[in-house]
Amino acid sequence: MLGRVVDDVRVNDRLIIPAAELAWRFSRSSGPGGQGVNTTDSRVELSWDLAGSALLPPALRERAVERLGDRLTQGVLTVTASEHRSQLRNREAAAARLAALIASAIAPPPRARRATRPSKGSVERRIAEKKRRGETKRNRRSYPSD
Question: Taking the model in full, what pTM does it have?
Answer without folding.
Answer: 0.68
